[in-house]
Specification:
single chain; flat; alpha+beta; eight-stranded mixed barrel; L,D-transpeptidase catalytic domain-like
């Protein structure tokens, strides 16, 4: 049979096809996708001691951050002293710890990586000792370009090492922040001796010299002096107060995250190692004191920020100081 109106038939067919396609598309867009099942921390999940059992990642992160936001309370006798994270320049990687903890298939404690300034921590210890002492004080270094000793006085004071220990513990364990053991006042020894005070390192950029200060007859005295190289004009050695936080014999040299070292490879211990045979690293700015095979650079502005020394000089200094030794650069 011959159709009289082929155009009308074609239009009708096309309309039906478009309508069906539209209905099909509408069907697929109106069906909601199933909501993802939130990942929940299993029973017994802890982050730095904070219980996050049954929490999703967002709730757990809020809970952990709140714990780390608390101030650190240090109780001396009957008085309470507060330390804020900002006073320590502390930074906590809670996000990574929570992510790892929520993903665990069995309970357990996930620690939180924390960084802070050793120098600022020691400043807080000194503050607490000064404010809590009962007319008594230990002798202490006054860190400046030419260090001096502030003589102590007979009386009572808390044990500074206990104060420091409690602050360090509370940095990584927030549940300790509200309360730890009471630190009593004890009779103190105000003597200004090397055993009591240790050494101080003073770096003079202008003279390109390192001086090692020690208590001698109760007064500060430069007992050793070393010729050094400091940062080149394009890589100046920073000024300020620092603390020795790492000491390594026969260290590896690992390229820093800087443009000048981007094509460099790690260097194992040995005669060509840029750090010589000793590394004494500071608490910030990725710098420190170290030996150098390039002895011809000493006495000049030649390094990428570190303080270079003759290899025997670095070994001598290394043998005398400890982690915790204060450094002043001026």
């Amino acid at each position: 049979m011959r159709l009289r109106h082929p155009a009308s038939f074609l239009a009708l067919t096309l309309a039906l096809f478009v309508g069906a396609a539209s209905a099909s598309a509408q069907d697929t867009t109106t069906v909601p996708a199933p909501a993802p099942t939130p990942v929940i921390a299993v029973a017994g999940s802890l982050v730095a001691g904070v219980d996050i059992s049954g929490m999703d990642a967002a709730t757990a992160l809020t809970t952990v951050n709140a714990a780390f936001a608390q101030q650190i309370m240090i109780t001396i006798d009957t008085r309470v002293f507060k330390v804020r994270s900002s006073q320590l320049e502390a930074v906590y990687d809670t996000q990574t710890a929570v992510t790892d903890a929520v993903a665990r298939t069995a309970g357990g404690n996930t620690p939180v990586a924390a960084t802070y300034s050793e120098t600022k921590l020691k400043d807080q210890v000194k503050r607490i000792l000064r404010l809590s002492s009962d007319k008594g004080s230990v002798s202490e270094w006054v860190i400046r370009a030419k260090p001096m000793i502030q003589r102590g006085k007979a009386g009572s004071a808390p044990n500074g090492k206990l104060v420091e220990k409690q602050i360090r513990a509370a940095i990584s364990q927030p549940l300790l922040r509200a309360q730890q053991a009471v630190i009593p006042l004890v009779i103190i020894d105000p003597a200004a001796t090397l055993k009591q005070l240790g050494y101080v390192i003073a770096v003079s950029k202008g003279e390109r010299l390192v001086r090692l200060y020690a208590p001698v007859a109760g007064k500060a005295k430069a007992v050793l002096k070393f010729k050094v190289a400091v940062g080149a004009p394009s890589f100046p050695t920073p000024s300020g107060k620092f603390t020795i936080v790492i000491m390594e014999k026969d260290p590896w040299w690992n390229p820093p995250d800087s443009d000048w070292a981007k094509d460099s490879e790690p260097v194992p211990p040995g005669p060509g190692n840029p750090l010589g045979t000793r590394w004494m690293g500071f608490d910030r700015d990725d710098i420190g004191l170290h030996g150098t095979p390039d002895s011809g650079s000493l006495g000049s502005y030649a390094s990428h920020g570190c303080i270079r020394m003759f290899i025997p000089s670095a070994e001598k200094l290394y043998s005398l100081i400890d982690v915790g030794t204060p450094v002043v650069i001026f």
